[in-house]
C-alpha cells in the first residue's frame, strides 16, 4: 500500500472540496467552475501518475547521497522529525522561490498558478515536471543524515498543510498565527497576477522565511488570479508543456548563443536588451478582463463528470496499489497512460475540440481492453463482459445524442 501522506489524504481532499462547494453555494460565492475544477484535479492526477515514475529518480538521488555521502547520521525519533519538518520547509522556500526566478524551473511550477479561480481544487493542481528541478534543493538534508523515509514523511505533511490555504472562504486569522504560519490570506497574494503581488509569499508552512528574506507581502486589494499569459486550455498535458513551448519560441528568436543559454536561467519574461529587455507584469484591466471559459453542452458536462468519478476511483486504486504495479513496468505504464489519455479526452470535450468525439470513442474502446489484458489476464467473467458492453455502448449513445444536438443547435 502507498503510504505517502498525500495519497492517503485523497478522500479528505475531496470531502473538504465538497464542504467548500456547499459553503459557496449557501453564500452565493462563484469560485468554482466545473471545467476549471476538473482541470485542476486532472493536473494533480497526471502529477501523481507521472510521479510514480519520476519519484524514483528524486528519492533515488536523495537515497544515493544519504547512503554514500552523508556527513553524519541523525537518529530517527520525534525530535528528528520536527527538525526535518522545519528544515524541509526552509529548503522548500528556496526551491519555491527559485521556481519563480528561473525560467526553466518556472516551466514546471507555472502549472500550479494557471487557474484563474482560487479554491481548494487549485491545491491539487500540481506539476508533473517540477520534481525534476526541485529535488536538488533537499540534498543538504541527505548530507546531514536525515533518513529518506523521514524526508518522504515531512514532504507529504508539508504538502498536506498547504492544501487548506487555497481558499477564499477563510479571510484573516489571529495576528499571532499569521505572524508565524502561512495562511489563506498570505497564499492568495502568492497566487495573484497583480504586479505588486507577483513573486511574494513563497512559504510552505512557515511565513517567517518570507519575512526573513524580504519576499513577504500583506494582502490588500482582492487579487486577480492566474499567470500573466493565460493558458486558455483545459488540457492538463499541455498545461505542463505550455511554458516550455513558449521558451522554445523565444530561444529561436534570440540571435546570440550566450543569450540563449542565459535566457534559460534568467527570470521569466527576460529578453536581451536589443530585443526589448525584460517584459514586466502588467496590471489587469478588470473592466475588460474575461476568464477563459468555453461553454459546452450540459449533457457533455454531465458525461465528463460521471466518467470522471470512475477515473478518480481507478486512479486511487492505481496509487494505493503501487507495489503490485511496480512489479511490471509495462502494466504500470499502460495503466498510467490510460489515466493520462482520459484527462486529455475530458479536457478536449470541455473545449469542444473537433477531434474530441473520435478521441473519446478510442478511449472507451481502450479501457476494457487494457483492464482485460493487464488486470484480468483475459480471464473474462460474464459480469465483466456485460458491464463493459453497457459502459461502452451507453457512453457512445450519450455522446452521439449530445453531438447530434450540438450540430442542430449550431445550424
Helix content: 55-70%
- Structural class call reads mainly alpha
Distance between the termini: 53 Å
Round the mean pLDDT to the nearest integer and report it: 89
Q: Helical element count?
A: 19
Number of DSSP-assigned strands: 0
What share of the residues does DSSP label as strand, in percent?
under 5%
Number of domains: 2
Outline the biggest β-sheet: none
Report the uncertain regions. none
Question: How would you spell out the order of helices and strands?
Answer: HHHHHHHHHHHHHHHHHHH
Describe, in plain words, how this protein is organized in 3D.
The longest helix is centred in the N-terminal third of the chain and has 36 residues, at 34-69. The protein has helices spanning 5-8, 10-27, 34-69, 78-101, 103-113, 120-123, 130-134, 139-143, 148-163, 175-180, 184-190, 208-213, 236-253, 257-265, 298-320, 322-326, 329-350, 356-375, 382-410. The protein folds into two domains: 5-213, no CATH class; 298-410, no CATH class. The protein has 411 residues and is mainly α.
Summarize this entry quickly.
The protein is 65% helix and 0% strand. The protein has helices at residues 5-8, 10-27, 34-69, 78-101, 103-113, 120-123, 130-134, 139-143, 148-163, 175-180, 184-190, 208-213, 236-253, 257-265, 298-320, 322-326, 329-350, 356-375, 382-410.
Task: Show the helix and strand layout.
Blueprint: H1 5-8, H2 10-27, H3 34-69, H4 78-101, H5 103-113, H6 120-123, H7 130-134, H8 139-143, H9 148-163, H10 175-180, H11 184-190, H12 208-213, H13 236-253, H14 257-265, H15 298-320, H16 322-326, H17 329-350, H18 356-375, H19 382-410
Amino acid at each position: 500500500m502507498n503510504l505517502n501522506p498525500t495519497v492517503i489524504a485523497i478522500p479528505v481532499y475531496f470531502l473538504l472540496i465538497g464542504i467548500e462547494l456547499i459553503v459557496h453555494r449557501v453564500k452565493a460565492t462563484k469560485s468554482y467552475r466545473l471545467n476549471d475544477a476538473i482541470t485542476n484535479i486532472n493536473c494533480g492526477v497526471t502529477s501523481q501518475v507521472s510521479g510514480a515514475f519520476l519519484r524514483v529518480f528524486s528519492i533515488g538521488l536523495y537515497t544515493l547521497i544519504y547512503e554514500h555521502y552523508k556527513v553524519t547520521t541523525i537518529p530517527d525519533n520525534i525530535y528528528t522529525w520536527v527538525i526535518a519538518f522545519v528544515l524541509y520547509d526552509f529548503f522548500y522556500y528556496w526551491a519555491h522561490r527559485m521556481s519563480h526566478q528561473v525560467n526553466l524551473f518556472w516551466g514546471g511550477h507555472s502549472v500550479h498558478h494557471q487557474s484563474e479561480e482560487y479554491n481548494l481544487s487549485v491545491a491539487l493542481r500540481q506539476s508533473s515536471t517540477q520534481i525534476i528541478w526541485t529535488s536538488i534543493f533537499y540534498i543538504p538534508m541527505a548530507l546531514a543524515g536525515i533518513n529518506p523515509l523521514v524526508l518522504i514523511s515531512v514532504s507529504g505533511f508539508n504538502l498536506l498543510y498547504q492544501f487548506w490555504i487555497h481558499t477564499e472562504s477563510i479571510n484573516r486569522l489571529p495576528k499571532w498565527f499569521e505572524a508565524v504560519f502561512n495562511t489563506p490570506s498570505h497564499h492568495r497574494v502568492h497566487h495573484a497576477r497583480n504586479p505588486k503581488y507577483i513573486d511574494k509569499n513563497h512559504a510552505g508552512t512557515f511565513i517567517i522565511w518570507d519575512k526573513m528574506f524580504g519576499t513577504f507581502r500583506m494582502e490588500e486589494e482582492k487579487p486577480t488570479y492566474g499567470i500573466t499569459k493565460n493558458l486558455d486550455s483545459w488540457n492538463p498535458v499541455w498545461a505542463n508543456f505550455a511554458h516550455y513551448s513558449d521558451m522554445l519560441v523565444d530561444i529561436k528568436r534570440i540571435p546570440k548563443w550566450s543569450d540563449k543559454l542565459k535566457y534559460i536561467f534568467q527570470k521569466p519574461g527576460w529578453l536581451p536588451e536589443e530585443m526589448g529587455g525584460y517584459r514586466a507584469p502588467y496590471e489587469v484591466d478588470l473592466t475588460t478582463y474575461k476568464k477563459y471559459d468555453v461553454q459546452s453542452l450540459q449533457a457533455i458536462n454531465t458525461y465528463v463528470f460521471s466518467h470522471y468519478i470512475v477515473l478518480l476511483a481507478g486512479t486511487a486504486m492505481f496509487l494505493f496499489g503501487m507495489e503490485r504495479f511496480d512489479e511490471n513496468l509495462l502494466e504500470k505504464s499502460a495503466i498510467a497512460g490510460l489515466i493520462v489519455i482520459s484527462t486529455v479526452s475530458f479536457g478536449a470535450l470541455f473545449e469542444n475540440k473537433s477531434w474530441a468525439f473520435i478521441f473519446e470513442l478510442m478511449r472507451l474502446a481502450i479501457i476494457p481492453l487494457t483492464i482485460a489484458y493487464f488486470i484480468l489476464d483475459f480471464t473474462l467473467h460474464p459480469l465483466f463482459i456485460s458491464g463493459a458492453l453497457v459502459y461502452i455502448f451507453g457512453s457512445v449513445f450519450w455522446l452521439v445524442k449530445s453531438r447530434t444536438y450540438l450540430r442542430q443547435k449550431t445550424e
